[in-house]
Amino acid sequence: MDKNFQEELTQIIKFQPPLYKQRHQFVKDLVEKYKPKKVADLGCADCSLLWMLKFCSCIEVLAGLDICANVMREKMHTLSPLPVDYLQPSERSLTITLHHGSVAHKDPCMLGFDLVTCIELIEHLEESELKKFPEVVFGFMAPSIVVISTPNSEFNPLLSRVMLYRHPDHKFEWSQAQFQSWALETARCYNYSVEFTGVGHPPTGMEKVGFCTQIGVFVRKYPQTGESVQSEKPTEAVYKTVFKAVYPSLKDEKYLQNAVISEVIFTAQIIKYRLMSKREEYGDDPERKSKFQPSMDCFSDYLGKLVVEKNMEPFVSGNEVYIPLKTIFAFPKVNRLCGTFEKLCKLIAGKVTLSSDGSAVMFNIEHEEN
Ligand code: SAH
């Protein structure tokens, strides 16, 4: 390569978005494609990839592992649930755990994952660790997908300020041929297939140099069931758990109950409000007190359709307003939350004031009317 041309390039190669973001986006795209439920990030460093992945709604278990506890601690608080997560618990469950340990050691907490990511990790491993790494990841953990990224040394001459390696802690940096032969041999040994790609395109006309970051995506060729894995691989725990967050979820009966109670009361209040407005408008005249007539908003329209059916009409008796549970259950959000009418009754029992036969939510309006 012409030296001047190379120097010119050295000045202009700046990746946009930055390379680390492109790597993380690559993983996110992979998650969206394969929809893994359990994802482990090995060499998770400051947890920034884990933080990005916690927003992927298919993921229910996220784990991070790093040999340096301090680097994980720096930002691990960003993985904790926020107040909004408690106010509006998600439908999925999500547990995030961080472990302190080495990828050269096996620990049972790393079993049962669907996707394992090793982003810019292997080049930080000592020779002895790199030797053990395939057995731990592909032999022991054996997830259905493994993604490994590492610098492509052929790209280095195009980057400014790269002396020997891109980072002082790198133990090696491989050419495309070196990475591919290691990856193909590993895949062959553990019965995986592997495809190569990367992020950080080379400049036009220099495609042979390859991507700045080379990536191997390994897919397990044999099926495996979660439970058999754990029982077949008894191993002592060696990692130390440094962080664990269990997100509030509607899968947890406690949060589901709260959500259902709030939604039932909210829906009943709106129905009551509409009923009272109609009464004010038409008085008690039975001729004029038409049932819920078509109105301008869809809630009333919906309610109007519902009350056509017998037993679903809210009514006033003395100082009490009764909103049938069947009516409330017919509203999409309540319906989706509870699934069955029996479940609705069970979840609100003793928590919401009901009519004596338990068929309607009851409000006393004595003081409201005065
Ligand atoms: N994956 C991150 C950071 C990579 S830097 C990202 O995408 O930005 C490499 C990380 O691997 C460092 O945090 C380092 O502490 C960790 N590491 C190095 N050797 C390790 C080992 N044997 N086991 C686990 N983590 C290791």
Provide the helix percentage. 25-40%
Task: Work out the helix count.
Answer: 14
Name the strands of the widest sheet in spatial order: 6-7-5-4-1-2-3-8
Major sheet summary line? 8 strands, mixed
Round the Cα radius of gyration to an integer and report it.
30 Å
Give the SSE order as H and E letters.
HHEHEHHEEHEHEEHEHHEEHHHEH
Q: What's the CATH class label of the largest domain?
A: Alpha Beta
CATH homologous superfamily classification of the largest domain: Vaccinia Virus protein VP39
Give the CATH architecture of the largest domain.
Answer: 3-Layer(aba) Sandwich
Number of domains: 2
By CATH, the topology of the largest domain is Rossmann fold
> Strand share of the residues?
15-25%
Mean pLDDT score: 89
Distance between the termini: 90 Å
**Bound small-molecule species:** S-adenosyl-L-homocysteine
Shape: elongated
Point out poorly predicted stretches: 1-10, 292-296
How is this fold's topology laid out?
Layout: H1 3-12, H2 19-34, E1 38-42, H3 48-53, E2 61-66, H4 69-75, H5 83-87, E3 95-100, E4 115-119, H6 127-141, E5 145-151, H7 176-190, E6 192-199, E7 213-220, H8 226-232, E8 240-246, H9 253-282, H10 298-307, E9 315-317, E10 320-324, H11 325-329, H12 332-338, H13 341-348, E11 360-364, H14 366-369
Parallel strand pairs: 1-2, 1-4, 2-3, 4-5
Antiparallel strand pairs: 3-8, 5-7, 6-7, 9-10, 10-11
The structure holds S-adenosyl-L-homocysteine.
How would you describe the overall organization of this protein?
The protein has helices at 3-12, 19-34, 48-53, 69-75, 83-87, 127-141, 176-190, 226-232, 253-282, 298-307, 325-329, 332-338, 341-348, 366-369, and strands spanning 38-42, 61-66, 95-100, 115-119, 145-151, 192-199, 213-220, 240-246, 315-317, 320-324, 360-364. With 370 residues, the chain is of the alpha/beta class. The protein folds into 2 domains: 3-247, Rossmann fold; 253-281 and 298-364, Orthogonal Bundle (Arc Repressor Mutant, subunit A), CATH 1.10.10. It has an 8-stranded mixed beta sheet, sandwiched between helices. The protein is elongated, with a radius of gyration of 30 Å. The structure holds S-adenosyl-L-homocysteine (SAH). Residues 20, 23, 43-45, 49, 65-68, 71, 102-104, 119-121, 124-125, 129 line the site of S-adenosyl-L-homocysteine. This is Small RNA 2'-O-methyltransferase. Keywords: Magnesium, Metal-binding, Methyltransferase, RNA-binding, RNA-mediated gene silencing, S-adenosyl-L-methionine, Transferase. Its cofactor is Mg(2+).
